[in-house]
Amino acid sequence: MCSDRSRSPVPPDAATDFESHRRHLLSVAYRFLGSVSDAEDIVQETYLRWAGADRRAIQDTRAYLSRIAARLCLDQLKSARVRREQYVGPWLPDPIVEAAGFSTWPAPQDKADEVSIALMLALERLSPLERAAFVLHDAFGQSFDEVAVALDRSAATCRQLATRARAHLRADRARFKPSAGDGERFVQAFQNAAQSGDLGGLTRMLAHDAVMHSDSGGKVRAARRLIIGGDRIARFFATLLPKKGAPQAQAFVRINGLPGILTRDAQGVLGTLAFEIHEGVITALYQTRNPDKLRHLPPL
User: Fold this and answer.
1) pLDDT, tens digit, 9 for 90 and up, residues 26-37
2) CB distance 75 to 1 below 8 Å
């Protein structure tokens, strides 16, 4: 996404005012698109439009910028849906990683910014307008009058859109999040069992109906279909990791609020693996190996 306006000088006061809202806008755009690079492009275009606006007539800067970003995101969603239809293998949102000493953009700091992978996948199943109404109202607290302006719909219509979105999302909300300490211990135990080929240990840690999502975009080796069933996932890890050997480097992290691990293998390929845990067993795993989705991560 680019604009000829990028060659125009940006008034210093516009830049200062905008920076205080940048993180909020990144979070909004990420919830819409699930992509770090696309969200950054949206925020840059929002900045350029803000710089060229008559700011004297703007009463609520954050609401104004959110409206611009939301409209840009709605346009972007149309092309994103086409790309998803052509995507090789399962699609996952770009991982947002936190660990001691570092955090990747945009690091969650409050409830509005906690974006579980399950929720992001559920948002993909909404219509663009349902997604917009939910993100702006439920996630970021805009009134339906404000959402109506952003979406060019009536407030009543936006309320209905948000209601439908909530009904679709209700079953997909994360039910349980272990503490950081419990999560790391669980992930460490899983990693140890996988590296030693302990099939029984892995099976006991997995729900019988667990699901594994692997996102490689067809660019590196990974499962190109969902792996469904705890026994099948256990066999996958018990067979794969002993053959590949231990990672060259690894760090226990939080990925979109879930316990997980960041690894670099012998070929230098980065990967993330997030664990959704409920009542002491793994119900879902989310593996990202597509290098395009990991460029924002720090070197490991």
Assistant:
1) 999 999 999 999
2) no
